[in-house]
Amino acid sequence: MSGVEAARRGLVARIDPAGHPLPLSEAAPGSAGRTGFWRTHRPVLEPARCVGCYLCWLYCPEDVIEMAEGAGPRGQAVPVIDYEYCKGCGVCVDVCPTRALKLVEEPIGEG
Prior knowledge:
By secondary structure, this protein is an alpha+beta fold. It has 2 domains: 1-26, no CATH class; 31-105, Alpha-Beta Plaits, CATH 3.30.70.20. It contains 3 helices and 6 strands. A hairpin with a 5-residue loop joins strand 1 and strand 2.
């Protein structure tokens, strides 16, 4: 059965651009709930350095990064972080090849 056929039968949620079926369930952002209020650091993007490689999106353990297509200064995709769910773990910062993301200290009492 092809991916398109499986989607028509309701066996998959959707088909990716390459025609592969994606699973019925998808991870929800912030598996532990809204955790942004207790983070001590937040990742901040410098858009001019971002090359739209998607590594931050791929490796985010909480699935709180979406890529905004064409939103970068050179028309590249750039990450948009949902701070209500971001734990500030820094994985996105660690995998960024251009250092476009950096961790900054979270102001106390804000989140």
